[in-house]
């Protein structure tokens, strides 16, 4: 099973390795943090295999001004 937090952490390392700017990394970290928090808090999903296109659609439909971030993932 693939843990979402682990995948997101790996993706952020990849973004650093390919040389994205600090501002881009900050924006990606915030958006991924919001996405992670939405999946875990609102949808009860922590594993990749549990996610569906309906979860993605639900996230894209939410008000982007809401903050779903968890301090644990921002570390």
In short:
By secondary structure, the protein is mainly α. The protein has four helices and no strands. The chain is 64% helix and 0% strand.
Protein traits:
single chain; 75 residues; disordered C terminus; mainly alpha; Core-binding (CB) domain-containing protein
Describe the overall structure.
- The chain is mainly α and 75 residues long.
- The chain has one domain (4-74).
- The protein has helices spanning 4-17, 22-42, 53-61, 71-74.
- α1 (4-17) runs antiparallel to α2.
- Keywords: DNA-binding.
- InterPro entries: Integrase_recombinase_N.
List the uncertain runs: 70-75
Provide the β-strand percentage band. under 5%
Oligomeric state of this protein: single chain
Helix content: 55-70%
Mean of pLDDT: 84
Number of strands: 0
Shape: globular
Organism: Sporosarcina highlanderae
Protein name: Core-binding (CB) domain-containing protein
Keywords: DNA-binding
InterPro entries: Integrase_recombinase_N
How is the topology of this model organized?
Elements: H1 4-17, H2 22-42, H3 53-61, H4 71-74
Helix pairs in contact: 1-2
Protein name: Core-binding (CB) domain-containing protein
InterPro entries: Integrase_recombinase_N (IPR010998)
Keywords: DNA-binding
